[in-house]
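Need the bound structure for heme C, inputs here:
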Amino acid sequence: MRIIGKKPIGMLGACVTAAIVLSACNTGDPVVGKQKSVVCQSCHGVDGNSTNPQFPRLAGQYPDYIVQALSEYKSGERKNPIMSGFAASLSKRDMQDIAAYFASQKSVLHVLKR
Ligand code: HEC
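Answer from helper R.:
Posting the output first, comments after.
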């Protein structure tokens, strides 16, 4: 698990605690997110398990981490020429749906207890 510098706020904070029970965390729709993430899949892999080390694996990542990262690319707080372009077009809702999708996928790196 990666550590982020900032603490998630409000509802997202509750979701971190409830990460084991993802369904209790009504922040994103993984089915909608799968459709919205088609453009992301060319780099990050269809299920978020990128096979190219240039592109981080998103499968099994905490959804709030994904939303946070995307928000920071969009705001410019986190800088990457590729990702700021993609994040710019995403609404908060898009980020939450996409995060729900990738988070629900099994990471090939490790087995998550869910
Ligand atoms: C052209 C390839 C490409 C596409 C398409 C792409 N990404 Fe990325 N993504 C990257 C790269 C490269 C990085 C690493 C950037 C960095 O070092 O900050 C990254 C980083 C990320 C991160 C941060 C991961 C971490 O572990 O910190 C997230 C989240 C993410 N991308 C989500 C998305 C989403 C959602 C989409 C679709 C809307 C998308 N990406 C589309 C290449 C891509």
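Comments: Confidence is low (pLDDT under 50) at residues 20-24. Helices lie at 10-17, 30-36, 38-44, 63-75, 81-88, 92-104.
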